[in-house]
Amino acid sequence: MARSLSINDGEVLIAPSVLSANPLRMAEAVEGLSGEYDLLHVDIMDGHFVPNLSYGPDLVRRMRQEWPEVTLDTHLMVENPEQFIDVFAEAGTDILTVHVEVAPHLHRLIEMIRARGCIPGVSINPATPVEWLKPVLPMVGLVLVMSVNPGFGGQSFIPQVLSKVKALSCWKKAGSFDYLIEVDGGVTPQNVGEVVKAGCDVVVAGSTIFKASSPSDTARLLKKIAVEAKRSGR
Ligand code: DX5
Ligand code: ZN
Predict the structure, then answer these.
(1) Which of 59, 173, 183, 198 has the highest count of CB atoms within 10 angstroms of its CB?
(2) pTM value?
(3) What CATH number did the domain enclosing 67 receive?
(4) Is 86 a catalytic residue?
């Protein structure tokens, strides 16, 4: 059964993306974070929806076995996501996020994810209008706003997506929805304050954390800056 996804007022969650960890040393990299994170972000890429390949459900299954208490945040960047819901749910992910661009029957897909015991998330690419998400906002636990074009870690943040984060934050308040807003791509200690002030609840960071000389210190620093920004904006 999936954990519930919620945050206290003034809180921000940090989700390191293992895509930027050395794949031959991933377990050491995650354990080296010394618990300085809230979710573990796992990027699944198929070489079609995005121009890169990454992992399959067995990575999630092994993570679940190895780290039963960790909240696993699986980001599916694949065509035909409906073919992969069952295997990732069975593997034990908590959150399962699909892209609106590859989901013509999004309601059905979200219902399917929830029926399999996962928290449904929906994601949009930088060039996709945020209005596409409106019909499903009451149904999801997470909205993932891509702030780079998906496929690779280490790209530069696209500031134009902040207006989408602001819109999602306004709609959430107006509709009393309970989704969290996650921002993924190019987040650094320099821009995380602005990202959080726009309304982000969950910060994904890959290269910023795993390429740092001290990943655990960097994750703690990101959280500190993020929480200060959130509290100063209240
Ligand atoms: C990109 C992935 C991201 C990526 C973020 O397609 O969805 O999760 O790992 O990496 P950074 O933080 O390095 O941009
Ligand atoms: Zn991602």
Answers:
(1) 183
(2) 0.98
(3) 3.20.20.70
(4) no
Residues 157-215 have pLDDT tens digits of: 999 999 999 999 999 999 999 999 999 999 999 999 999 999 999 999 999 999 999 99
Q: Tell me how many domains the chain contains.
A: 1
C-alpha distances (whole Å) from 213 to each of 110, 113, 135, 216, 219 are: 39, 37, 43, 9, 11
Asked if residue 1 has pLDDT above 60, the reply is: no
Distance (angstroms) between ligand 2 centre and the Cα of 131 equals 21
Selection from 84, 29, 30, 81 nearest residue 56 by Cα: 84
Q: Determine which one of 38, 43, 73, 201 is catalytic.
A: 43
Checking phi first, is residue 126 left (phi over 0); if not, alpha (psi -120 to 50) or beta? alpha
The domain of 173 spans 13-232
Residue pLDDT, tens place only, 92-103:
999 999 999 999
Establish if 38 belongs to a structural domain.
yes
**Which residues surround the ion ligand 2 when the cut-off is CB under 5 Å?**
43, 75, 184
Q: What is the phi/psi pair of residue 6, to 5°?
A: -150, 160
Does any ligand 1 atom lie closer than 6 A to the CB of residue 186?
yes
Specify the residue for token string 């509290």.
231
Instruction: Output the six-digit token pair for 134.
Output: 């409106």
Atom of ligand 1 nearest to the CA of 150: 6
Ligand nearest 144 Cα, by number?
A: 2
Closest atom of ligand 1 to CA, residue 209:
12
